[in-house]
Amino acid sequence: MEPTSTSLDGNTEAPSHWLDRYFGVTRRGSTLRTEVLAGIATFLAGMYIIVVNPAILSDAGIPFSAALSATVLISFMSSLAMGLYARNPILVAPGMGMNALFTYTLVQGAGLSWEVALGCVFWSGVLFALLAVFNVRKAIIEAIPASLRYAITCGIGLFITFIGLKNAGFIVGSDATLVTLGSFDPALITFFIGMMATAILVILRFNGALILGIALTTLLATPMGRMWGGDVVVEWSGLAAWPDFSAVMQVDIWGALKVAYLPFIFVMLFTNFFDALSCFMALSESADLKDKDGNPRNLKRSMTVDAFASMIAAPLGTSAAQTFIESGAGVAQGGRTGLVAVTIALLFLPFLFLSPLLSLVPGIATAPALVLVGLFMLAPITKIDWARYDQAFPAFLAIILMPLTYSITLGIAFGFLSFVLIKVFTGRIEEIKPAMWISAALSVVMLITTH
C-alpha cells in the first residue's frame, strides 16, 4: 500500500510523491500544484530581468547577447541552488541596483573596464561568502544604522528611475537648468504611454506586469521610423540562436585587486549583503517562513547561496546576483518550499536561446520597468525616523545624492561620512560601531582616489 500524507488541516492527501518528501511540501501546508503555480507567478514577476539586465550591462560594453546568456545562466543556477540546497521559495538573479552600480558607477563613472568591474564583483562575492559561511551577520547588522540601510535602498531606487527616464529621453541635459523635459517626439510619447500602461498593470496586480509593459511598449515602438518620424528602434533579427558565451571567463580577477578599487568592492558587498538579508526577513514575515527560534528559515544556507551566486556571476559575465523581492508574488500564491525556486530555474532555461528575439526590445521599452522598479525600492522610506535629525540627515544625503551625482557609491560614502561626523560632534561617539569607522574610512579613500 502506497504511503499517504496528511495536510495541516487534517485532510488526507494523495500518495506521497518524492518531490513532496524532499521539499516537505505537505508538511509546509502546500501542494505540488500550488508550488509549481507559485513558481510560475514569481517567474512572471521577475522575468523582466532577462531583458533589462542585458540592456543595462550593454551600456558598460558587454555585448547584449552575451549579457543575456549570463543573466539566464546565473538565474537558472542560483535559483536551482536556492531550491535544492536552501529549500526556500526565492528567486535569485542579477539584481537591479547592482547592475546600475556596475555600469554607471564603476564603468562609466570611475572609468574601469567591464572586465575589471567584473573582478570587483567577484571579490565582493568572495567576501560575501566568507560572511555567510562564518555567520557574522549579527555583528554587521548592529554596526550599520537601520536608517542608512533603508536610505541606500531608496537612493538606488531613485537612481534607477532617473536612468529609466534618461534612457527614454524623458529627461535630457540642459545648459540652463542641468536637466529638463525632452521634446515630444514619437519616442517620448511611446515611452509615456508604455509607462502609464505598465503602472496601470501593476496597480491592477497583473502577474508579470513589468514584462507585459515591456512587450506592449515594444509593439508601440515598432512603427517608429516606418510609419512616423524617428529612427527605427525595433528591428527583426531572428527568433532563436545559440547562446553567446563571449563574456564567459573575461573577468579580470587580479586587475581588480587595487587599493583604489577596495571601496567599490565594499559598496557591492554592503549593498548585496543587506539587500539579501532584507529580502529574507521580509519574505519570512509575510509567509511565516521561520524556524523554531523565529528567525528566517534556513537563513545561513540562503545567504550562502546568494553569496556564491554573486561570486559565480562575474566569471559568467554579469553583475552580482541577489535575492529578488518579487519572490513575494509566489509566496502570495501559497508557495512555501524550494520547489518554487526549482520551477523558476527551469523556466529561465529556454530564454538562453532567444537572444535575437529579445534584442528587439528598445531602450524606451525597458525604461518603464526601470521607473516602476524605482517605485518599488522606495518602500522602506517610511521606516526612517525623520523626526530624529541625527538619523534623518545622513539618510537624506544618501538618498538625494545618488541620482544627483549619478553615483551610488558617492551617495553611500557621504551618508556614512555624515553619520560619523554628526555622532562625533554631537557627543555621541559611543554610538559609532567599529564597522562604521571602517566604512567611513573606506569612503574617504574612495573620494580621494576617484575624485
Characterise the protein shown here.
This protein has 451 residues and is mainly alpha-helical. It has one domain (17-239, 252-450). The protein contains 19 helices and six strands. The chain has helices at residues 18-23, 32-46, 49-57, 64-86, 98-107, 114-133, 137-143, 146-167, 186-203, 209-221, 262-287, 299-316, 328-332, 338-348, 355-358, 363-377, 389-405, 408-425, 434-450, and strands at residues 4-6, 12-15, 92-94, 171-174, 178-181, 321-323. The strands form three sheets. It has a two-stranded antiparallel sheet with strand order 1-2. β4 and β5 form a beta hairpin. α2 packs across α14 and α8 (146-167) packs antiparallel against α18 (408-425). The longest helix has 26 residues, at 262-287. It is globular. The termini are far apart. The model is unreliable at 1-15 (pLDDT under 50).
The total number of structural domains is: 1
Radius of gyration (Å):
22 Å
Average predicted local confidence, pLDDT: 86
Cα shape? globular
Sequence stretches where pLDDT stays below 50 over 5 or more residues: 1-15
Q: Let me know the number of strands.
A: 6
Helix content: 55-70%
Q: Assign the structural class, choosing from mainly alpha, mainly beta, alpha/beta, alpha+beta, or little secondary structure.
A: mainly alpha
Number of helices: 19
Distance between the termini: 73 Å
Largest sheet: 2 strands, antiparallel
Percent range for β-strand residues? under 5%
Helix and strand run: EEHHHHEHHHHEEHHHHEHHHHHHH
Strand order within the widest sheet? 1-2
